[in-house]
Amino acid sequence: MTKGEVASETNDDPRLPVIVVGAGMAGLTAAVSLHESGVPVHLFEASNGVGGRIRTDRGEDGFLIDRGFQVLLDGYPAARRWINHGALRPRAFDAAALMWTGRRRVPLANPLRHPISIVRDATTSLFGLGDKVRLARLAAEVSVAPWQTANEAATSLGHDVPASEFLWSRGFSEAFVDRFARPFWGGITLDPHLSGSAGVMLFTLKMFLSGSALLPDRGVGAMPGQLLDRLPTEAVSLGARVTSVMIEDGRATGVRVARRKIPASAVIVATDPASAAKLTGVQSLAAADAAVGSITVFLAGTQAPGTGPRLVLDATRKLLVNHIAPLSDVQPAYAPKGKHLLAAVIVRKDVEGQDLEHLGERARLDVAAMLGHAPGSWRVLESVHVPFSQFAQPPGIFRKLPGNVTPTGGLILATEATVDSSYNGAMVSGETAASIVKRELAFREEAFRD
């Protein structure tokens, strides 16, 4: 990585590598796109691994622990372009859920995937037949929508509104919103009040209709790992924090890593919004700086949960746990043979900052009640608090997000903060950033030859 260390800080040679700062999904996508187009690239990551928030740790006891409950949505357009899902050897969640009513678990299935369930689900007491008809109509609408991102879905509304308001406007009942929409989409957006943009809700509905929720056999961290494998080893530096971007005559000419000056033909900043704002001075990144956190309690046991590969949602909305994900029932590789692993997800803001051990015990009791098991059937393996799982996406936020191009020449953004808070948004931003840089370098290469 040292071939440019003694080069001039003001070198405008387009043959210098493009430096990508940050190895999350946006930075990895940008780096792979550049490399596979023949553009030299160097990726710097401050931590000891790639993926940003999409990471997986393997415990000494053989359990796979993701950085919070996460799934891969193979319907995501950007992921379909860049990820070989089959190579990840994934297993899918069933296109159905079990709704905890306080007394029993009521099944609710996608009729397109489970046509035999239509009669059963039409008579469920969770919400009325009218809501099921309205949901079918909405599903038909979003299925044919051309959206590639949640940003596009929100923009298509003309006037963006909260997800709950959108559902009320479509005639959905209070029972539907409270018993299904809040635990289901609240678990996805980490906002059980459904106060965020309706575009996010609509886009995720489209994704669940067009694909499946998957777990790879090496955990969700295998997805960024696959992108990393497409880059030369010498093009990636881990544990290397970029402290500043070098600017000369209004143009980015490289970065500083510790005390070294590393020249570049262009710089792509692909960090979290707060870090990106410090490195680039782009103040509009503050629109994506409001953190939404989550707590996931991983529970281990020897008794099968009895749910099959289905989420269990708290339709009562009275428990601490919003939903249970039977990880090893979906993907057996998540637990050693003879053991089971669950993820109990907490999305309530009022418990932020509370003792994780205490929250883990409360979650364990909730899980036992929802599954009808003795409390001692499950033990807390680990409680994972992710303070920044997503950035808040209230109605109208997408108009406030910055674009990829900054006022500084050769300085480009690649971050979900330019699209929407998802790894699909991050990858779309990485694609766009790489395309911008490739076009700019082509022009500069022509001028350099002249």
The assigned structural class equals alpha/beta
Mean pLDDT figure: 92
Shape, please? globular
Percentage of residues in helical conformation: 25-40%
Q: How many separate helices? A: 13
Spatial extent as radius of gyration: 23 Å
End-to-end Cα distance:
28 Å
List segments where confidence is low: pLDDT < 50 over at least 5 consecutive residues: 1-10
For the sheet with most strands, the description reads: 7 strands, mixed
What is the beta-strand fraction?
15-25%
| Strand count | 20
Strand order in space, largest sheet: 8-7-16-17-18-15-19
Explain this structure:
This protein is 32% helix and 22% strand. By secondary structure, the chain is an alpha/beta fold. The strands form five sheets. The protein has a seven-stranded mixed beta sheet, sandwiched between helices. Strand 11 (242-248) and strand 12 form a beta hairpin. Helix 5 (150-156) crosses helix 8 (198-210). The protein is globular, with a radius of gyration of 23 Å. Residues 1-10 have low confidence and may be disordered.
